[in-house]
Design brief:
262 residues; alpha/beta; five-stranded mixed beta sheet; 11 strands; binds adenosine-5'-triphosphate; nucleotide-binding; transport
Amino acid sequence: MKEAIMSSTTATPKISTRSVNVFYGENQAIKDVSIDVEMDNVTAFIGPSGCGKSTFLRSLNRMNDTIVGARVEGKIELDGKNIYDPSMDVVQLRARVGMVFQKPNPFPKSIYDNVAYGPRIHGLCANKAELDMIVENSLQKAGLWDEVKDRLTNSGTALSGGQQQRLCIARAIAVDPEVILMDEPCSALDPIATAKIEELIHDLRGKYAIIIVTHNMQQAARVSQRTAFFHLGTLVEFGETSEIFTNPREEKTKDYITGRYG
Ligand SMILES: Nc1ncnc2c1ncn2[C@@H]1O[C@H](COP(=O)(O)OP(=O)(O)OP(=O)(O)O)[C@@H](O)[C@H]1O
């Protein structure tokens, strides 16, 4: 089988995938994808609708486990450890590899409790003062603290869409993840809220390995250092974002970024 490793890097990858296939029943959504994701970079996954971006993203923290009939083959390692190994604690894995979804999905709880939820269930704090500190730090990192510090007991669902999405990012950050997966995090947001999330991604770069699925090529160009282009379940090209957008090696990539399809 041809290995499509299109990333050449000397850095130790945070996530490494080799020959990954993902199936929904009989249908194969991801075909032989091998990719290395580094800590210091924001990595964008782009490609036409249905090409498998979200499916592949979900395989990186085993969210596909929750879909009946979904099956993942191949090797996916986090810090060199196979995440599909039976010894892997999936709850722990999803704390290390957090996820932010298309539609902001705060819990119907207070702003404080949304952020405190993860640290509480993972036992990350010894007392209320420590928890307060985690909540404040997480909201600071998500760029939301100043807007909510005087109303932490208000419901998270009463915030604006953009604020809700930053609350979801704070919730992911609160359990001290190493990787944050973002599945079209701005698709439900207006341009101003989108710009804030993009700024936030800039600020978070380097602290977490970030992978973002986006339909918006300008967004991929703005926020990422590396871009992977998917088509019909295969990884067509993976490389420096500037190269992918100005000098793609593959005809298919060129056709997509110049708007010929997708
Ligand atoms: N839960 C599911 N059950 C069955 N098939 C699925 C499921 N989710 C996705 N698929 C199929 O897998 C393929 C890849 O879908 P996926 O959502 O990963 O693509 P995508 O590139 O993220 O698309 P979009 O950009 O439209 O969100 C599609 O053919 C889709 O119909």
